[in-house]
């Protein structure tokens, strides 16, 4: 610890004085704060031997694609990319047509956290709809569809949903299936931002069939499958069912500057992740740690904690206590006007981290 300068991020004029215990060894800020699991580092080392063909023509990339075919239940074009934003842009670029928009929620990462990359790179309007829980609904699609055929209105072409959502909520398989049916009935396609799909799969059944039920079996047309938040190192992939025209996906990826030349290093991690379901294990652990934190603090009413579905909690903490806690063990603000913050666990969060963090929160709130 000590490498993260939280005083660069938050103001340090807190006047709230409280003696807090030893902080946890790891932060509760983000699953991106954690490093990579040693199994992935080993996979990278093993892949780091000799010369192999570039741009995905190597044995590890072929193996990773086979494993994704098995996982998806359909043959997919596996488009490895460098990051989650790139993944979303490449995925959307594969299913958008000219003069079309992308329907998403107000909270969606593509809408608020991608610096306008989808709009700039795709040249498409994002139509964000209000949502209290981060989920898009069939009624939103029906409402947007009223513009279809009106030559003065952008045409809703793609519905983008996030699973698990940016608010830590989950769509059921039936909800996704209903969204896909509604979208398809209006000629729209469906994109699933799965930056945290592993956490969703772990929470909703924990196996490959769960993944399929939430994605391609439900009718999703393209998936951004995340690895980086789930213990990998720069490993993200777009999954696109193979068609006769499947080289188009690779062309779009290259145009959006997301084509890794030494793809073996990304593929090696996905082989390790998928061969024995390891990707679900690490996510299940992160989810379990969030639940442990919830159970340790649920009695404190002022926090207004909701039982977590995946690996994040969104408590209410009044400003002075919040500052003291952030200076003690950094975490992000979520909604400043509501005094809401986000606590997030990761693959490497330990029970000791949770207990130490919970103790600090209790003491800061006078509950020890
Ligand atoms: C829902 C969601 N999608 C995508 C991303 C990927 O973003 P990045 O480009 O930072 O990897 C994130 C990261 O926070 C996310 O939360």
Automatic annotation (TrEMBL):
Name of this protein: Unannotated protein
Protein keywords: Pyridoxal phosphate
Record family assignment: Belongs to the threonine aldolase family.
GO molecular function: lyase activity
Cofactor: pyridoxal 5'-phosphate
Source organism of the structure: freshwater metagenome
Biological processes annotated in GO: amino acid metabolic process
Keyword Transferase: no
Matching InterPro entries: ArAA_b-elim_lyase/Thr_aldolase, PyrdxlP-dep_Trfase, PyrdxlP-dep_Trfase_major, PyrdxlP-dep_Trfase_small
PANTHER family: L-THREONINE ALDOLASE-RELATED, LOW SPECIFICITY L-THREONINE ALDOLASE
All residue ranges annotated as the Aromatic amino acid beta-eliminating lyase/threonine aldolase domain in the record: 28-313
Coiled coil: none
């Amino acid at each position: 610890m000590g490498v993260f300068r939280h005083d660069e991020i938050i103001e340090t004029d807190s006047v709230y004085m409280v003696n807090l215990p030893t902080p946890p060894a790891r932060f509760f800020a983000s699953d991106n704060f954690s490093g990579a699991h040693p199994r992935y580092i080993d996979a990278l080392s093993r892949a780091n031997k000799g010369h192999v063909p570039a741009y995905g023509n190597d044995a590890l990339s072929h193996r990773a694609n086979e494993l994704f075919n098995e996982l998806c239940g359909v043959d997919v074009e596996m488009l490895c990319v460098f990051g989650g934003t790139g993944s979303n842009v490449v995925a959307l670029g594969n299913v958008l047509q000219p003069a079309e928009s992308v329907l998403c929620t107000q909270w969606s990462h593509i809408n608020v956290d991608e610096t306008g990359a989808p709009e700039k790179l795709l040249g498409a309007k994002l139509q964000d709809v209000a949502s209290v829980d981060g989920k898009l609904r069939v009624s939103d699609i029906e409402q947007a569809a009223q513009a279809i055929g009106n030559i003065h209105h952008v045409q809703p072409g793609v519905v983008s949903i996030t699973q698990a959502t940016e608010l830590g909520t989950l769509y059921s398989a039936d909800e996704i299936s209903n969204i896909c049916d509604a979208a398809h009935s209006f000629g729209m396609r469906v994109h699933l931002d799965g930056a945290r799909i592993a956490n969703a799969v772990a929470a909703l059944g924990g196996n490959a069939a769960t993944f399929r039920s939430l994605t391609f079996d439900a009718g999703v047309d393209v998936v951004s499958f995340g690895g980086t938040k789930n213990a990998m190192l720069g490993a993200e992939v777009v999954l696109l069912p193979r068609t006769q025209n499947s080289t188009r996906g690779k062309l779009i990826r290259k145009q959006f500057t997301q084509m890794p030349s030494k793809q073996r290093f990304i593929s090696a991690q996905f082989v390790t992740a998928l061969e024995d379901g390891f990707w679900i294990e690490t996510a299940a652990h992160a989810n379990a740690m969030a639940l442990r934190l919830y159970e340790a603090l649920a009695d404190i009413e002022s926090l207004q904690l909701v039982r977590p579905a995946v690996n994040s909690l969104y408590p209410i903490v009044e400003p002075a206590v919040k500052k003291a806690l952030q200076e003690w063990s950094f975490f992000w603000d979520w909604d400043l006007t509501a005094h809401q913050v986000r606590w997030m666990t990761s693959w490497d969060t330990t029970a000791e981290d949770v207990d130490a963090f919970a103790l600090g929160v209790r003491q800061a709130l006078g509950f020890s």
